[in-house]
TrEMBL record:
It comes from Platysteira castanea. Pfam families: Glyco_hydro_59, Glyco_hydro_59_C, Glyco_hydro_59M. Belongs to the glycosyl hydrolase 59 family. The gene is Galc. Residues 345-459 form the Glycosyl hydrolase family 59 central domain. The lineage of its organism: Eukaryota, Metazoa, Chordata, Craniata, Vertebrata. The keyword Mitochondrion does not apply. It comes from the Eukaryota. This is Galactocerebrosidase. Its EC number is 3.2.1.46. SUPFAM superfamilies: (Trans)glycosidases (SSF51445). Keywords: Disulfide bond, Glycoprotein, Glycosidase, Hydrolase, Lipid degradation, Lipid metabolism, Lysosome, Signal, Sphingolipid metabolism. The active site is at residues 186, 262. Gene3D superfamilies: Aldolase class I (3.20.20.70), Exo-inulinase, domain 1 (2.60.120.560), Glycosidases (3.20.20.80). InterPro entries: Aldolase_TIM, GH, GH59_C, GH59_cat, Glyco_hydro_59, Glyco_hydro_59_dom. Residues 43-337 form the Glycosyl hydrolase family 59 catalytic domain.
Length: 669
């Protein structure tokens, strides 16, 4: 008979469910945890991605104390998710899923290590956990790197210099040590470039920076490493994306560390938590992966952009202060609060007889952590890849502790149960300790549960008072961009979807427009997806129908320059090229247009405006029901344009091409 003191009586369920009165006997199986014959692979940590792209865009605009609370839930040790790794996008001025992130080098002779918000985020993470590992990875590159070609490897010395500059800037300006660097997210790799990157790193005294390749699939990188000993020597980690918990033989044959360097990407409800719980264990059990990194860290972007709420938690309302600690945060804690990078996995099969999995890790100094998950198929589907069928049933697991663990007398117990019937899930609750009797204990496992059993007594489920309730974006919103020393390079709540819009000091202006918002990308970047041919930044409430947008505009490009303001904008992110809405354009040649799309193909009205470049003008767009009208400098320019689709959407501003232009006194009603 299994003796399990403290938590359960003989034959009772350890889970919080009711005892199994008159039920069929549980499937019973035994598992041995032993370190006498050596350990498994070294554990490298659990992390998350900020970027790829602009996924933390709205986080920076939160007021205190809410912003710090969100950061504590993500990074503070023994508090919430307690992440071991933060991976950030090296901004490339291009669309990389939910927006663009600015580059530290827009142009060849330009360097600025204060753009965007990833520097700030890395510092905030380090402030909370000085041991957190930092990874940088580009999704896109500024156009000058390719000298007109949409390809970063024609001039590999330039690309390597650009990436190493980012690493050096992180240290010089922010005292941040980057631990790992990637190649090009989910795109082709170049062996020549990877070798040159290693050479350039070493030349600049960055020998400690490790290289991850290729942030795509296991192949062809694994095969190429097996036949190219020089490449094998410079790649430290093989990182695959969305591997479905499986690896390939060639990857194992390299002898390198194997990571799921991007995974999850799933809506952050309880099914998302089930997905995360399953892959956190099974990436090692099935695939020998010693790190799993979630895309994304925190859903801090407008929810109607692609992959809304696919973060470990949600913080998409800086105007209200509302945020939500979603269940994946507490699933993360089951592993992160009771392990550290540098621990080792035990050599175990890891599959439970009744379905589900377990991993066991040790610090090599007598501490032991066991994480068990019993996620069912339908409650643990990730967004990708497709999940083959499997079944999980209630079961009794008996564990025998051998080797240095034989003398363990008790294990702390943390438990989560995802309840898909009542919706009343129990997350990361501490139960009474399990007593280990002569190196043995038993546990009754139900379906859709996670257990952590550990010798460590440091776990904590922390929290703050409830944040403010959710509120829609303000129905009247103004920004005059009059800020002398902005904390960030971008104005609050504007979400750039092609191009980069930054605070600008217009030193030559006599006074009314000294501080403006300027579009600064003047060459099409080396893109990751199909950026628009126009630049655009969206703002506001996607549900807006009747809307008035007013903005002062300044075309800088002579002859064929142009700018727009817009309403009912219905798309962004990776789908930005297909964006529709009501767009009011004025051009440097003195003409105007009204179009139903960003591409400018669906012309609703056109005519002469008298607008010229290098002069300030005020545009007003009024959309009411099925009708739109436009004002120039307060005077009606066009009216009674019929608009039927889309029915709602954001406000926006932007330019005709990749060109300099300025905006001021933005107002939406």
């Amino acid at each position: 008979a299994a003796l399990l003191w403290g938590t359960i009586l003989l034959g009772c369920s350890c889970g919080p469910g009711p005892p199994r009165v008159g039920a069929a006997p549980l499937l019973a199986a035994t598992y041995v945890l032993d370190d006498a014959n050596g350990l498994g692979r070294e554990f490298d940590g659990i992390g998350a991605v900020s970027g790829g792209g602009a996924t933390s865009r709205l986080l920076v605009n939160y007021q205190e104390p809410y912003r710090s609370q969100i950061l504590d839930y993500l990074f503070k040790p023994n508090f919430g998710a307690s992440l071991h790794i933060l991976k950030v996008e090296i901004g490339g001025d291009a669309q990389s899923t939910d927006g663009t992130e600015p580059s530290h080098m827009h142009y060849e002779n330009d360097e600025n290590y204060f753009r965007g918000y990833e520097w700030w985020l890395m510092k905030e993470a380090k402030k909370r956990n000085p041991k957190i590992k930092l990874i940088g990875l580009p999704w896109a590159f500024p156009g000058w790197i390719g000298k007109g070609e949409n390809w970063p490897y024609d001039y590999p010395d330039i690309t390597a210099y650009y990436i190493v500059s980012w690493i050096l800037g992180a240290k010089q300006y922010h005292d941040l040590d980057i631990d790992y660097i990637g190649i090009w997210n989910e795109r082709a790799f170049s062996s020549k470039y990877i070798k040159l990157l290693r050479y350039t790193l070493d030349k600049h005294g960055l020998e400690q920076v490790r290289i991850i390749a290729s942030d795509r699939l296991w192949e062809p990188i694994s095969f190429v490493m097996l036949i190219d000993s020089e490449l094998h020597g410079v790649v430290d980690v093989i990182g695959a994306h969305y591997p479905g918990t499986k690896t390939v033989q060639n990857a194992l044959l390299t002898g390198k560390k194997l990571w799921s360097s991007e995974d999850y990407s799933t809506f952050n409800n309880d099914v998302g938590a089930g997905c995360w719980a399953r892959i956190l264990n099974q990436n090692y059990v099935n695939g020998n992966m010693t790190s799993t990194i979630a895309w994304n860290l925190v859903a801090s972007y407008y929810e109607q952009l692609p992959f809304g709420r696919c973060g470990l938690m949600t913080a998409q309302e800086p105007w209200s202060g509302h945020y939500k600690v979603e269940s994946p945060i507490w699933i993360t804690a089951h592993t992160t609060q009771f392990t550290q990078p540098g621990w080792s996995y035990l050599q175990v099969d890891g599959h439970l007889e009744g379905g589900g999995s377990f991993v066991a890790l040790t610090d090599g100094q007598g501490n032991l952590t066991i994480i068990i998950e019993t996620m069912s198929h339908n409650h643990s589907k990730c967004i990708r890849p497709p999940l083959p069928n499997f079944s999980v049933i209630p079961q009794r697991a008996t564990f025998y502790l051998r080797g240095s663990f034989y003398m363990v007398e008790a294990l702390q117990v943390w438990h989560s149960r995802l309840d898909f019937e009542s919706g009343n899930s129990s997350l990361f609750q501490q139960l009474r300790p399990v007593r280990v009797w002569q190196g043995r204990f038993s546990l009754d496992l139900n379906v859709d549960e996670v257990y952590t059993l550990t010798t460590l007594k440091r776990g904590r489920k922390c929290g703050f008072p409830e944040p403010p309730p959710p509120q829609p974006f303000p129905s009247s919103y103004k920004d005059d961009f009059n800020i002398r020393n902005p904390p960030f390079s971008e104005a609050p709540n504007f979400a750039d979807q092609t191009g980069v819009f930054e605070y600008f000091v217009n030193a030559s202006d006599p006074g009314d427009h000294v501080f403006t918002l300027r579009q600064v990308v003047v060459q099409r970047p080396i893109t990751w997806v199909s950026d628009a041919d126009q630049t655009i930044s969206v703002i506001g409430n996607f549900k807006w129908v009747n809307i008035t947008v007013t903005c002062d505009i300044y075309i800088e490009k002579p002859h064929d320059g142009g700018v727009f303001i817009a309403g009912r904008v219905d798309n962004g992110g990776i789908y930005v090229r297909r964006t529709k809405g009501v767009f009011f354009w004025v051009f440097a040649d003195g003409t105007y247009r009204v179009t139903g799309d960003l591409a400018g193909k669906q012309i609703l009205m056109k005519g002469l405006s008298g607008v010229r470049d290098n002069a300030w003008h005020t545009l007003t767009l009024i959309i009411q029901g099925n009708s739109a009208s436009g004002l120039l400098n307060g005077y009606l320019l066009w009216e009674n344009v019929t608009v039927s689709e889309p029915r709602n959407g954001w406000a926006a501003l932007g330019t005709r091409s990749f060109e300099f232009a300025q905006f001021d006194n933005f107002h939406v009603e």
